[in-house]
Amino acid sequence: MSENLNSYSEQTFENIKHINEEGQEYWLARELQVILEYKQWRRFVDSIERAKMACKNSGYNIEDHFADAGKMVAIGSGAKRFIEDYMLSRYACYLIVMNGDPRKDVIAVGQTYFAIKTRQQELIDNYEELTEDEKRIAIRSEMKRHNAALADAAHNAGVTEPIDYAIFQNYGYMGLYGGLKARDIKERKGLMKSQDILDHMGSTELAANLFRATQTEEKLRHDEIQGKEAANQTHFDVGKKVRQTIKELGGTMPEDLPTPEKSIKEIEREQEKNKLK
């Protein structure tokens, strides 16, 4: 990753955040375009359109996240012309940077800002109001859905056998966890071979893995990756990129995050018992 990454930070995106009269945060597409280093509006619109489609496919109302903010502006001699623009929710920005060029340092920081560091779980309603246990359950649910999509993308790339998919998953973990494979992570967490790693992660660690999964799926499809080795390398590279960005922003490495006392399955069983009381 380029040293230019140090030029970008959370503040890069905080500086262009707006708050409306109802106290809701939003970003203007024209301002985000500049930050994300798109020189041409039409090219940035391509990312917006892909983000809109992703929003729709996720079951959300596009208008709730991409509000029309176009306006007439003066261009001299009393003439005016219409300038297209959008008021974007945090989720809309998340989808846009997910569709951005991952080779750009600012895109990498933007993905972390709108995803890992500051509520990637905007996907989940009222996330900030949830308890840690509720956050874990909500993100784990998202993880199941996106892991299924990742498996489909990997299959399309040529990862067809169960053993091959296990290897593919290990490459993602190795990238994100500094070389650790699934068995190494389980050992650090004191887990048995049969236990699911994801059920024994806190919300922050789950969020990092959710980001790894969604970004890898996108890259496999967007770059039309073919072949098991190429798919494995892609998963590793994405995991490593996420790790590097967390490091640059001062976050805790996933292997150093604490393991919760209770698994998600245990929490879910307790919740079911409480419902029956």
Task: Record the strand order, biggest sheet.
Answer: 1-2-6-3
Radius of gyration, CA atoms, in whole angstroms: 20 Å
- Shape summary: globular
Major sheet size, sense and barrel closure: 4 strands, antiparallel
Average pLDDT for all residues: 83
**First-residue to last-residue Cα separation:** 54 Å
Poorly predicted ranges: 1-7, 116-123
Q: Report the count of strand segments.
A: 6
- In percent terms, what proportion of residues is strand? 5-15%
**Secondary structural class:** alpha+beta
**Fraction of residues in H or I helices:** 55-70%
Tally of DSSP helical segments: 12
- Which sequence of SSEs, written as H and E, runs from N to C? HEEHHHEEEEHHHHHHHH
Keywords:
57% helix; disordered N terminus; 4-stranded antiparallel sheet; single chain; globular; alpha+beta; 277 residues
Secondary structure blueprint with pairings:
Elements: H1 10-14, E1 17-19, E2 25-28, H2 29-35, H3 41-57, H4 62-65, E3 66-68, E4 71-76, E5 79-83, E6 86-88, H5 90-98, H6 105-117, H7 132-157, H8 162-176, H9 182-189, H10 203-222, H11 228-248, H12 264-276
Antiparallel strand pairs: 1-2, 2-6, 3-6, 4-5
Helix pairs in contact: 3-5, 5-6, 6-11, 7-10, 8-11, 10-11
Task: Write structural notes for this entry.
The longest helix has 26 residues, at 132-157. The strands form two sheets. The chain has a four-stranded antiparallel sheet with strand order 1-2-6-3. Strands 4-5 form a two-stranded antiparallel ribbon. It is globular, with a radius of gyration of 20 Å. It has helices at residues 10-14, 29-35, 41-57, 62-65, 90-98, 105-117, 132-157, 162-176, 182-189, 203-222, 228-248, 264-276; strands spanning 17-19, 25-28, 66-68, 71-76, 79-83, 86-88. The protein is an alpha+beta fold and 277 residues long. Helix 6 crosses helix 11 (228-248) and helix 10 (203-222) crosses helix 11. The termini are far apart. It has twelve helices and six strands. Strand 4 and strand 5 form a beta hairpin.
